[in-house]
Design a protein that fits this description.
Elements: E1 10-11, E2 16-17, H1 23-54, E3 68-71, E4 74-77, H2 81-92, H3 97-106, H4 120-127, E5 136-138, E6 160-162, H5 172-190, E7 215-221, E8 227-233, H6 234-237, E9 246-247, H7 248-257, H8 263-267
Antiparallel strand pairs: 1-2, 3-4, 5-6, 7-8, 8-9
Length: about 270
């Protein structure tokens, strides 16, 4: 691009210029050699990882984990282990991720990098990491592509789990309870149910009796400029259900008039 607007680039070490005749061929050759060298290094690194995994060896390096220190190749719980345990306990008890984040902030807990606020993604990664049970899974993700620097989804790889590799932070019953809730939440999301902590209490609870999908909250603007809240079937939004839209005040009124009511039957 620089050459196209008349700007020369000189490479002092190689003693060449982009204005030299034949420089394009030379640059292409050098790039090809560099790419092949990068590929060779990548293959050697992957070969080393594979051999170490077969021997049950994998050092954390810069990829540390909250709650553990690596001492002489062995994971040992540190002072952050209590933070990890609190995250699992609160999630198993039914707390929302936002509630867990606020609870951690209230006690001054810090992330792995020393930040005083956890993110949703960090909490979820902790809840899904089986390392806290004392097991250790080697090669969890595909190898990095040496060109794109991203996981190579096309290249096969084999994970290996070592049972009781180190001292556990999370007991098995607590781990199982958390994984059960995570799976339940994932199943709800798969059918469109998304509970939202801190917002309307009807999210994920108003279910269509026709197609079985959850209702979503929508807002309509009246002619006088006022806003009204309604609940519409997700299936109707997608064009696969004919169930009617319900005004939010109708649902609220029905719930206050009776001690118990089947909202799905009411919606039908």
């Amino acid at each position: 691009m620089l050459k196209g607007i008349g700007i020369e680039v000189r490479f002092e070490k190689e003693g060449i210029s982009t204005f030299d005749s034949g420089s394009d061929l030379l640059f292409s050759t050098m790039a090809a050699v560099a790419q092949e060298e990068s590929r060779s290094i990548s293959e050697n690194v992957k070969w080393a990882y594979k051999r170490k995994a077969e021997q049950g060896i994998r050092h954390l390096g810069s990829n540390r984990i909250l709650g553990y220190d690596e001492i002489d190749g062995k994971l040992m719980p540190n002072e952050s282990a209590s933070t990890v345990h609190l995250i699992f306990e609160k999630y198993a008890a039914g707390d929302a991720i936002s509630q867990i984040i606020m609870a951690l902030a209230s006690i001054g807990a810090h992330t792995l990098r020393g930040h005083d606020s956890f993110s949703y993604g960090q909490i979820m990664a902790i809840l899904k990491n089986n390392t806290y049970t004392g097991d250790r899974t080697l090669q969890k993700t595909p190898h990095t592509n040496y060109l794109t620097k991203k996981p190579d989804l096309q290249e096969p790889y084999q994970s290996k789990t070592i049972q009781n590799d180190h001292t556990a932070i999370i007991e098995r019953p607590l781990w199982d309870a958390v994984q059960e809730r995570l799976e339940s939440e994932e199943q709800k999301r798969a059918v469109g149910i998304r509970t939202r902590s801190g917002t309307n209490a009807f999210y994920g609870r108003v279910i269509c009796s026709v197609c079985g999908l959850p209702f979503r909250r929508v807002t309509y603007k009246e002619r006088n400029g006022s806003l009204r809240r309604f609940w519409k079937c997700t299936g109707r939004i997608k064009g696969i259900c004919s169930n009617r839209t319900i005004a939010e005040e109708d649902i609220t009124r029905a719930l206050t008039e009776q001690d118990m009511i089947s909202v799905s039957a009411f919606a039908g």
